[in-house]
Amino acid sequence: MNEVKPINKNAPNSGYHRNTIPPHDPTLTEVLPGTPTGEYMRRFWHPICMVEELTDVPRYLVILGEELVAFKDGSGAVGVLHAHCIHRGASLEYGMIQEHGIMCSYHGFKFDVDGTCLEVPMPTGEEAEGCRMAANLCQGAYKAIEKHGLVFAYMGPPEEEPPFPEWEGDFTCHPDDKLVPFSNVQTCNWLQVQDNAADQFHHTPLHTTALIPGHEQGTTFGEAGANAYLVRPDLQFFPVHGGKSMAWTSSRRVDDDYMFIRINHQITPNVSFHSYLFEDGKKSKHFSRVHMHRWTVPIDNTTCKMIGWRGIGPNIDPRDVGNEDLIGYEKIDFLEGQCGMRRPERATFGPGELPPVPDHHRYRNAYVDAQHAPGDYEITASQRSIAVHALESPMKFDGGVYLSRKQLRDAVSGDNEDASPEAWKKWLEEVNGKPNTYCSGNVLAIPKCASPEEEVERRRDVAKRCIAAITESDNLPKSERAAFVKQKMVEIEQHYAN
Ligand code: FES
Ligand SMILES: [Fe+2]
Fold first, then answer.
1. Which strand (E) or helix (H) includes residue 137?
2. Distance from the CA of 285 to the CA of which of 104, 109, 304, 335 falls in 20 to 30 A?
3. pTM value?
């Protein structure tokens, strides 16, 4: 009898034993109507486009797999309607924007921004019948609002609508700073883009030129003097707000006298708050707030948009590194490789090739550039159109990815009642629609330990103390909270003095 040899998938040259691809996880990744995560997501407000995308013609959009048109009517009201007219299906992207609502170009039905049918055209003398018909019809519509250059829509059941979350009332934007909107399409499933926000370990290899010898383009962290990212972080992950979200610390030392503790905050299902991006880690800083507030909004199952605000101004960015001109529709000012189009001034051209005009030549070498120095855009898309979790080999530093996926799974399945849509709505009502974020950039005057082992222990202890201080401040009035956390950070520094 032939001996059956066990298969060792980890043996050298054994690609054959890994040549079949298991399916993706549909529960977490798929978002069309009726899917678990799709239904969960529909219980939250999401940014769907930038206000600047609303012009004199309707804007066709796909969000969560639904075809929509967004527009601003003559009275300034924003409408988000199902794209296909309820009469006979023509797309309202060809509709005529009215003083109130929009008119379908095919037969002239008019709809208000909430979908109310305002008019069904009829021959002269039969107008009354048109009014009767209109009263019984409604185009599919979603409530929409504008905030700081973004259009938000609530796409769930109207009776379950939660308060719009105004994080900390002003999105933590200091009066000297401003929120600058952006929207960048990503060509892959939404979850791997969201996972990437929880994956802070990639900053060092992916975003620093030091590790891409000979290919200097592709990063701005180094150019921005944000040398902290040359040091691999020690990552700690903390479930907070009853499992509705996860705060995480990335701790590094770029100076023997200072420890840089970056705290980001990821919210179920698709929000992430990022503290100061261009930190050099060499100057004391306590509780600097949000530098980027971002949503990963699914377009469909294999495309999404990274949409949100970047903070610009002297308070959040004292070294004035950010560039407002490079933030907006399909552009962002930090790091190359965040959008589908690379910046023209960075495109490389070989001998005899045309300069970066006209447009069709502009990005001709983008793929080669991307291979030399890829960014998040290329890397997340390269994980397959929908990443296959079953094929991953998790490391300790991936803990944030797995914790946030677990938080999502528990929320969607109902295993964590605190993260259910009902609990979210109740919580937002309790905090008057102004929940706190833990996001903060911190550089603490804490000296380096004598041994590497003590240093590991110290940075983890400091991270825990910072999270404890911010957690403790959660119920304080906004006017007292920042001062409380800053005082706690001074106390943490004093604890380690000498
Ligand atoms: S299809 Fe829109 S009015 Fe007929
Ligand atoms: Fe990145």
1. none
2. 335
3. 0.93
